[in-house]
Amino acid sequence: MHYKNITKIAMSFLLTVGVSGSLMAGSFIDKQQQELSAARAVWQQKDIPSGMQSGDLRVSSERDSGADNVSMKLHNVNFDVVENIGFYIGDLNVTLEPKVAGNPVVFDDVESFIINVHSGTVVLSPQVITDLFNDHILDYWPRPLDDLTITTKDNYLEVEGGLKLWSWFPGIYLPANLGGNIVLSADNKLVYEIDDVRVLGIPLYGLLSAIFIDLDLLLSIDREGAELVDSVLVLDHRAVFPPPALAGNLVSASLDSDGLRLVFADNEAAEFSKPPVASDSYIWAQSGDPRLFGIVVVNGTVQIVAEDTSKPLRFNLYGYRKQVAAGTLKMAMNGDIIATIPSSEGPDYRASASTGMTGSRSNTTPAVKEGCINRAGFNVCEEAKLMVKAVKKVTMTKKAEKVAPLSTEARIALKDMKAGTCFNRADFEIACQ
């Protein structure tokens, strides 16, 4: 009898413990789900910088934030697209936009999205410009110029390297030097206005101009985004760099000892939130759906900072996996992801503060020296006299004599003119033979 009472008491105790355990487990689950629901509301909250969303938001889901791009701010960063070809960025506001609407921005497929630059300033150092030409623009064979070294100073860019006329003659590269300024054309392209050509140390530009011989008769540049027209090299910043393609309009371009400084100002009203980690150098993706390592970060807020805070972060788009794999990731309760990574290999470059820049659209012009000597050392007054004498020797109609020499932009347009209009080397319209 006593044994039966003990058994009943034990069974009652076990039943009470089991029920209490179930109730406690249920409360833990409820608490976790409540916390998760509160966190999800924060994660799903749209924090798109003003002016960075071009269209209406799509209906969001667990796998799609509804934003049509990744809004990103870069501050004091050396951003390499590939190898050393890239930019030093002071401050830049961009959107990474997938070519197929609704897709995430896939960092491992650089041809699947474009970088739309809204506002800010980038600098291409002389070394970057050198690598851009040697390793990308002139990366074909046969090529007319080889082993270039580029230097810059106030409103002037000098090129030193080897030259083959017509890409093959003579059989070896001849030592050559080119010089000129870079300005913006009306259709927002960079125009390298060459005013100095020296081969084997012999100045040829004045002679070629006097007899109406342009460089495009002697050289050929065969690369999308780069075209030699008459004696100017036209570079389209939207096509001349390795992918991803750039979008956005330039408002100014200038040369100084730091390199080529480009200013964008399509959308200066965009405002970003402060990134979670205070840093003098960072990349901050505030919204959108980036895909890294095959993982889509929905409505991602990702900040990238350097392990070594004594110098600007150097980020390599094509090699980002190596950098992230060697770094550390931290995830905050609100969904922020902080990636602390080692900088990629390359020079620790920091451009000086911009000087003399304005937000208005303007073409920079070479410094004017007194007298008749231009930047290349030619006597332009005497050269003008030679030009006049040469023009008088050309047979032309009276109507043609009244036509002024064409501008660089007009010369570019001539290439698209239909057959039936004839011009001589002085750019005067003449009767077709």
How would you portray this structure in words?
- This protein is α+β, with helices and mostly antiparallel strands.
- The chain folds into 4 domains: 1-43; 70-125 and 266-341, no CATH class; 126-257, no CATH class; 380-430, no CATH class.
- The chain is 21% helix and 33% strand.
- Strands 1, 2, 4, 12, 13, 14, 15, 18, 19, 20 and 21 form an 11-stranded mixed β-sheet that branches.
- A hairpin with a 5-residue loop joins strand 22 and strand 23.
- The longest helix has 42 residues, at 2-43.
- Residues 355-369 and 373-404 have low confidence and may be disordered.
Write the layout of secondary structure elements.
Blueprint: H1 2-43, E1 70-82, E2 85-98, E3 105-106, E4 113-124, H2 126-137, E5 145-153, E6 156-165, E7 169-184, E8 190-199, E9 202-203, H3 205-210, E10 226-229, E11 232-235, E12 246-247, E13 250-256, E14 259-265, E15 282-287, E16 290-292, E17 295-296, E18 302-306, E19 313-316, H4 320-325, E20 328-331, E21 337-341, H5 380-392, H6 398-401, H7 408-414, E22 422-423, E23 429-430
Parallel strand pairs: 1-19, 3-16, 4-12, 18-21
Antiparallel strand pairs: 1-2, 1-15, 2-4, 4-14, 5-6, 6-7, 7-8, 8-9, 8-11, 10-11, 13-14, 15-18, 16-17, 20-21, 22-23
